[in-house]
Amino acid sequence: MATETGSEKVKKICEVLRKETLEPAMEEAEKCIADAREEAESILAKAKAKADKLVQDGQSEIDKRRNVFHASMQQGCRQTLEELKEQIEKRLFNQALFEAIAKKTSSPDVLAKLITAIVNAIEKEGLSADLSAIIPAHVPAREVNELLAREVSEKLREKSVLLGPQKGGAEVKLHDKKITIDLSEGALRELVGSFIRKDLREILFGPSE
User: Are 37 and 57 in a shared domain?
Assistant: First the structure.
């Protein structure tokens, strides 16, 4: 029977932990996608109405200027709508999702649970006892430390969480193996985004071929 390597165990831990931490982030993300969908549909409806009016107002002139002008007008309308769709995806969806995940994963309670889950999973696999946990710099370390069980804090090299540059979420470093388990807001954002980005793009651009 093959024995798992340290890297394989860490990879397995990351996969399990990311799935377990998806639920609270997905709730926020689903609300964002619902809000973005409603606003996107409203904006697109107004934009299409304006585009139709533009074509109607210019119809008499289009007839005089031959088919080439008509094609140019239609192309301009299509380009405007495509640009609008891209802006909706970027500004409404991406920004709302980023903000929701960063906010949700900046809670001291959520951070303490993330760190506890990671440390316990590492201990279960027997991977490392030389750990450091890193949280966002804007979150008071004292509040997170108070929420951590003593046995978890004792496993940290500094006996306390450290502050890092991420906007949300936590990272745990395994110093002896030079490995970082990343459950920061950036990693969670990519994971959540991969699940719901397709749904939003189909609303805006239609189903892919």
Answer: yes
- Measured in Å, how far apart are the chain's first and last C-alpha atoms? 44
Cα torsion at 99, 181, 150, 110 (round to 10°)? 20
Q: Name residue, tokens 């005089």.
A: 64
Please provide the average confidence, as pLDDT, over all residues in the chain: 77
Task: Give the tokens for residue 64.
Answer: 């005089």
Sign of the C-alpha dihedral, residues 52, 58, 63, 69? negative
Structural domains in the chain (count): 2
Estimate the crossing angle of helix 6-57 against helix 95-104, to 10 degrees.
Answer: 140
DSSP state, 181? E
**Is residue 12, in this structure, part of any structural domain at all?**
no
207: exposed, middle or buried (C-beta count within 10 Å: 0-12, 13-18, 19+)? exposed
> Which tens digit of pLDDT belongs to each residue from 17-71?
776 666 666 777 777 777 777 877 887 788 777 777 776 766 666 566 656 655 6
Rounded-to-integer distance, Cα 42 and Cα 92, Å: 13
Same domain for 180 and 169: yes
Q: Are 48 and 81 in contact (CB under 8 A)?
A: yes
Could you read off the pLDDT of 2-31 as tens digits, one per residue?
556 767 777 777 777 776 666 666 777 777
